[in-house]
Amino acid sequence: MQVAVFILVVLGFVAISGALVRLVRVPLPVLQIAIGAALAWPARGFHVEIDPELFLLIFIPPLLFSDAATAPKRELLALRGPILDLAIGLVFFTIVGFGYALHWLVPSIPLVVAFALAAVLSPTDAVAVSSIVDRNVVPARLMHILEGESLLNDASGLVMFRFAVAAAMTGSFSLGAASLGFLYAVVAGIVAGVVALIVAAKTLQLLNRIGGVPAEAQVLVMILIPFIAYLGAEHAGASGILAAVTAGVLTSGSGIFRYLGVSARMQTMSLWTTLSFVFNGALFILLGLQLPDIIRKVPPELSSRHWLIEPVATVLILTLCLIGLRFLWIWVGDIAQRLAARFGKRKAEPFGLRVRLAGSVAGVRGAITLAGILSLPLTMPDGSPFPARDIVIFLAAGVIICSLTIASLALPKIARGLVEPGEDPGAAEERRARVGAANAAIARIEIIANDASEGEAADARLAVADSIVAGYRRRIAASDEADEARAEAREAGRLELELRFAAIEAERTAVRAMLRSGDINDHTAQALFAEITLTEALLKGRKERK
Q1: 500: which residues sit within 8 A by CB, 6+ positions away?
Q2: What is the CATH number of the domain that holds 130?
Q3: Is the pTM of this model over 0.90?
């Protein structure tokens, strides 16, 4: 019962945080972490012991799968060079640079354990990045690079974390074995993601052949894809995170949605949106729940002189070190890109100083780091305590909070003015696509109407075709590049939506009256309410796009 109450409380505060974020004007992850810390801080507050493996399995695969499925594949492919450079090259650079800096700053941490902390701190958090970074103030190219990096560096960082922990446990390290192990983890992880997607597609095909299968069964197959990919890869000793990301990246282009019915497609999209919001919020609240206990156990090595000042200063220095290493790597990458473009006689697209700084500050750490560091073993093979375990857990939690705070406060100021005013390229592309689709629809409807035979049925078909074509022409006018034409079309569209919403509200009121009077039963009312709600959702979507 206590577990059930705890889950309900967390879900309740996830919902509350969605409303509070509008009032307090802070990034949602920061607010949710604060809520979690407030719940756990009192002596009798909520507390939960996180099982890192269970934590990774429940939260990380679905969240990364969802982010990967909605990521812009064209842009990620076009920017694969800088993305891989950050997702792999920067990870190794951070492990070496941060590891030595940490060992120098806190000598009580063995070098190999410092490398382990550096490895688990190297991945950026896809969830936190998308929550903090405002797409309207950050250049689209930088945003796509950050998204792609955060999807891929989880795998590289955690694989190297495992090698560092193994080296700390055994006292030996082989570069050749580590390189082969890393390559295997990457390749096998990708294969596991592809296999999971194939298995899901075959299952949906089988359900279609059976016929009459509820849409909910098809939705369940889609929900299970990231978990199947993750567990399959982990069972094979590969990267489960990379498997979930691979499955998500390939989902939209694999054609798997053609095996879903219309109802199943709508339910899948709606359910994934809800799950992403719930899991994101619960994840950061759980992170906040860990903070008071971690802070109460400040290691004596970090508080020998001042209980508060010394550990806070250490965390701040390490966070700035991570930002500095990231800035240096991006800067060197810019120089290398210019040289490569000069020798290849290509046009270079280097980042300016402020964009490099924005990209460095936006590399926040989050759930992957916390789950990874909490998975450190308690004891060594000989039964002695794992060296500096409490210190690195404290430092990891501190860096997570500090990186989130710095990004939340500094990024809006750094990024201000980086995006030139004017129409968003994505919006312009969407407008052109709408015009093209509408023209194709008009052409098809006119062909069907003109092929109709003469008579009363033909007249009715032409009248219906004219009505449908008129709607498409209004859509084209609303996307017209001429400001005056677009303004007129939008005003007409606004009046149409106003009337349609009024009609929908009248329908809903009439159905309620019939239900109360007993003219219809609950099943009939639910069916009508579902149709009305769907129509209303479509109209609201049109209104938001306008």
Answers
A1: 539
A2: 1.20.1530.20
A3: no
